[in-house]
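Q: I'm writing a short explainer about Aminotransferase class I/II-fold pyridoxal phosphate-dependent enzyme for a general audience and would like to include a description of its predicted shape. Could you first generate the structure from this sequence?
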Amino acid sequence: MTSSALEPAAPITDWEGFAFDTRQVHAGEYPDRNTGLRVPPIALSAGYVFEDFDDQVERFAGTPARPGGAFPGDAAATPGAIYSRQGNPTNAVAEERLASLEGGTVAVAVSSGQAAISSALFALAQHGDRIVSTASIYGGTRILFGRSFQRFGIDVDYVWDADDDAEWERAIHPNTQAIYAETIPNPRNDVTDLRRIAEVAARHRLPLVVDNTVGTPALIRPFEHGADIVVHSTTKFLTGHGAAVGGAIVDGGRFDWEAAERAGRSYPLITAAPRPGLGSMLDRFGAGAYARAVREAVVNDIGPALSPFNGFLLHQGMETLSLRMERHVDSSLAIAAWLEAQPEVDSVDYAGLPAHPLHGIAQRDYGGRTGSVFGVTVRGGIEGARAFVNGLRVFSRMTGIGDTRSMVIHPLTSTHASFAPEISERLGIGPGLLRLSVGLESADDLIRDLRAGLDRVAAR
Ligand SMILES: Cc1ncc(COP(=O)(O)O)c(C=O)c1O
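A: Of course. Here's the predicted structure. Afterward I'll give you a sentence or two in plain language.
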């Protein structure tokens, strides 16, 4: 490409060495020389022009992009631009920002958290394979595993007690291809001992995939605790304002795929040549090979592309992530401690509380600040829950978490309604349990609101 005043400037991709608060504002941004825009714009284009015939050939061959041919801000990670199902400059800003905040190599943005989980695991497992997951995970993920994954021939084995080595040994089979867990499980805030699971994963040469939706990189960065891949529902805290569904997969870049295959695992999308004459993803993209496989061999095939409009809301939302999380957690700590002392409350599932059985892990990994999504069980079972929920005004009765607004839902009759009773019981999803997501309103107002709900419980 010849030099012209209308070319985008060289992307500013390197924010290494800068603090989290600086990177959440700047990582992934690029100055636009054409217009001088300071905020990366919404790039609404389904496709991208090829410079000439050979440029098209090169882009489809996946050779490194010519200058200006890749998305600004992510030249190393994204292919020369072809089509927005595969990548988009607005989404590339969000991808690079999130990769920086998580401490990974490359991120891939997709259309929802469910798409992120599916795409992350479809790049690792195929028909006839298995995945091991901790049992305490978001209800929608368990439904995804039990329905669609099973229909596609991928079985999921659950480990109920992550401390029990024998259970892990029983659950991991020769055709197991990944371990899956959440940092702060939704809805019960029963924080996961990632280091322990990472040891199991390393022993069995399995990549550890961690959903960090509820934790966010502002509170915990799973790669620092041994995870290999991080997934997000960006719908929640990352976008932050409840307006846009989205998801992302982040490659930690450290997993040794070849050693895993020598130990009997199988990752053909990463290690095998996709077609004669073209090297494997690993040969061509090294520490970003997994992300590239997700983007090209899963997301581009199946098609859960993120709208650039939602990508814009995501990269803008992340600019204030650490500030919002601080307030979310300050309020949650105050509210959880207050709830625990109320006579109408049977129990509060917040690992940041000193009495919680997982408080040791909460202290070690989170400094006691275990997010803002947690359970509270009110007196009186389902009728107590009904009275409580109907007495609230500031808390919105809705499905969702990680919004500026506080939200409440009754898991047993919503997210977990399709579960067999014995599974719900074993997961601790009881009739009086409510999931709270504490928003950014005044904590005093939220406590007054919860008190109004508890008054209804008391009056029953
Ligand atoms: C922990 C977790 N992972 C994944 C999802 C799914 O995300 P999405 O609703 O964006 O598909 C959710 C949704 O609540 C979630 O809480």
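A: For your explainer, you could say: Residues 112-114, 138, 140-141, 182, 186, 211, 213-214, 233, 235, 245, 247, 401 surround pyridoxal-5'-phosphate (CB under 6 Å).
Q: Perfect, that's easy to follow.
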